[in-house]
Design brief:
By secondary structure, this protein is an alpha+beta fold. Helix content is about 30%, strand content about 25%. The chain has helices spanning about 65-70, 110-120, 135, 160, 210-215, 220-245, 250-255, 270-285, and strands at about 10, 15, 35, 45, 75-80, 90-95, 100-105, 125-130, 150, 150-155, 170-175, 190-195, 200-205, 260, 265. Helix 6 (about 220-245) crosses helix 8 (about 270-285). The chain binds zinc ion (ZN). The site of zinc ion (ZN) has 7 residues, from loops.
């Protein structure tokens, strides 16, 4: 199956949908494209037979992928992104007006490519297609009934829930179990929010329509980022605390009021910064 694009560009740089008698080019490699206007597949542009695009991240598009992209405004779909330093060009599935990228991933990809895409797009989230029996069966499992707190479910044993290459990422990964079906029980979207701590992830569940509306009005992205910040704070806190403990500075000392010269010991600037972080955290959590 060849790569399908909904938008090509004309010589004067206009974005055009597939149509007859228009000379159009690939937004990445600039090679001429052919309009495919058949009855079976959604109309699309394709590279000529045997021509490979320089964007190796493009994969043959599935119905699932297409359906997702079309939930968002046309002007946000298939956006050409260029790294001005390296000259590297890729097409983001969806890019919002605030510059946030969403990638819809149907097929498995290598860890290396996941990392490259995250480095390239920076501000992004993934939606994974898990609409397959092996993954759907886990929906009612223990992974979705973990410990509950203000943030959502805390999720462990992620290795059973998603393919291994998606574990311990620092980006937000949203799980879609619907696939191409209309089954009501699979309509929720599950957002995995990393804690910054190995093997611990939070799960935030929301309705599909809320997910889409939330992306369109930009509130969901802000909300997810705030959640991530809040969720990661106690984990950062315990990391800091451990680092101090290793240097012989202990919790009971930190509960007391401090100045930089404490118990005849002078803290280094970085130790002092950590102590202040912890004191602020205590103040905040007590109030
Ligand atoms: Zn191309």
């Amino acid at each position: 199956m060849s790569i399908r694009l909904r938008f090509a560009i004309t010589k004067d740089g206009t974005r055009v949908e597939p149509q007859r008698d228009v000379e159009a080019f690939c937004p990445v490699c600039n090679k001429p494209l052919v309009a495919k206007l058949g009855l079976v597949n959604a109309h699309h542009w394709a590279h000529k037979n045997g021509v490979k695009c320089t964007d190796t991240w493009l994969s043959p598009e599935t119905k699932w992928h297409n359906n997702w992209k079309n939930k968002f405004p046309k002007e946000w779909q298939e956006i050409r992104c260029k790294d001005n330093e390296t000259g590297e060009i890729h097409i983001a599935d969806v890019k919002t007006t605030s510059g946030f990228v969403i990638e819809f991933q149907h097929s498995p990809i290598e860890l290396e490519e996941i990392e490259s895409r995250e480095n390239f797009y920076k501000d992004m989230l993934w939606v994974l297609d898990l609409g397959k029996p092996g993954y759907r069966n886990l929906l009612t499992s223990k992974h979705f009934r973990g410990e509950f707190d203000n943030f959502g479910f805390r999720c462990t044993n992620l290795n059973e829930l998603i393919p291994p290459e998606w574990i311990n990422r620092n980006s937000i990964i949203c799980l879609d179990y619907l696939g191409n079906s209309e089954l009501y029980e699979f309509r929720q979207i599950y957002c995995l929010i990393p804690t910054g701590y190995k093997d611990a992830t939070y799960l935030y569940e929301l309705g599909r329509e809320d997910f889409i509306t939330g992306i369109v009005n930009n509130k969901l992205v802000v909300d997810l980022k705030e959640r991530k910040e809040k969720i990661q704070e106690p984990f950062r806190f315990s990391k800091t605390l451990r680092a101090l403990n290793e240097k012989g500075i202990h919790l009971n000392q930190l509960n007391k009021s401090h100045n930089q010269q404490y118990q005849s010991r002078t803290y280094s600037e970085s130790e002092w910064q950590k102590i202040k972080t912890i004191q602020n955290y205590y103040k905040k959590t007590k109030s």
